[in-house]
Backbone:
């Protein structure tokens, strides 16, 4: 991690938008979102043991995946680990607002040993009056001449009792594939589908999660893929918007031109 703090207690920052709508995040733990409540319901699973152990990757919340999602074995980026590096760095600068927050991470000499580019990554969260919450990933290429390759993503851990995972309903194009492959994703083998937004600009993911309700995920088309994953005996399901499949940072990255900005968004709504 950018700064080892083995004996430090990590505390998340909270923004309360209105009664029942609040979000917490932790710049010192890679910018992770640790809690999200909509209409009084907690959306996210969080393993506090991994959150407080800076030698471990946090299991839960919404980790920020940058510049790559998934594993990466490449001579071009030999030191990049699974899901990139920003989730393991503490050099984020954060600011709360009345309806959300923003946090920014800027490349350093240390990060350039892993990913040799100048960049600025901003993660911004905002509540809307319709009780929805939008999370933005905004990337600025600070290079003067080089394109900036990215294949980033988000890794939401939604809370669901382990015994109820088989009863989750995925009511959208491609959702039948996820239901049919329950044995795969519930046992640690992620399932990948295309973001329905690529074909239909109005498409949303409607997901019925026992004890939570009907979740609507409006995922911008910059995230071309949706990964679904869980682990046996664990009370979560991960539904992850990612830009490409595994290896995308090398095989088919998004290339941001010098001094240009790129963004992608995820909007979450609890349907009533």
Residues:
């Amino acid at each position: 991690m950018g700064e080892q703090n083995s004996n430090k207690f990590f505390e998340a920052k909270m923004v309360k938008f209105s009664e029942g709508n609040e979000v917490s995040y932790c710049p010192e733990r890679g910018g992770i979102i640790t809690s999200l409540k909509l209409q009084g319901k907690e959306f996210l699973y969080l393993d506090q043991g991994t959150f407080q152990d800076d030698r471990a990757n946090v299991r839960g919340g919404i980790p920020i995946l940058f510049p790559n999602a998934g594993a990466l074995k490449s001579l071009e980026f030999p030191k990049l680990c699974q899901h990139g590096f920003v989730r393991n760095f503490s050099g984020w600068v954060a600011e709360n607002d009345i309806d959300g927050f923003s946090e920014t991470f800027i490349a350093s000499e240390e990060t350039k040993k892993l990913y040799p580019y100048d960049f600025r990554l901003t993660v911004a969260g905002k509540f809307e009056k319709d009780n929805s919450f939008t999370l933005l990933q905004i990337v600025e290429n600070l290079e003067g001449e080089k394109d900036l390759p990215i294949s980033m993503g988000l890794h939401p851990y939604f809370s669901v009792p382990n015994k109820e995972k088989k009863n989750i309903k995925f009511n959208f194009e491609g959702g039948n594939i996820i239901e049919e492959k329950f044995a795969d994703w519930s046992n640690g083998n992620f399932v990948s589908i295309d973001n329905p937004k690529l074909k239909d600009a109005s498409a949303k993911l409607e997901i019925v999660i026992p004890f939570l309700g009907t979740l609507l995920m409006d995922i911008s088309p910059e995230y071309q893929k949706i990964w679904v994953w869980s682990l046996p005996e664990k009370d979560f399901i991960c539904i992850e918007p990612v830009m490409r499949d595994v290896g995308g940072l090398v095989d088919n990255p998004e290339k941001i031109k010098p001094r240009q900005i790129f963004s992608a968004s995820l909007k979450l709504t609890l349907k009533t």
In short: The helical segments are 48-52, 109-112, 175-180, 182-185, 248-251. The longest strand covers residues 261-271.
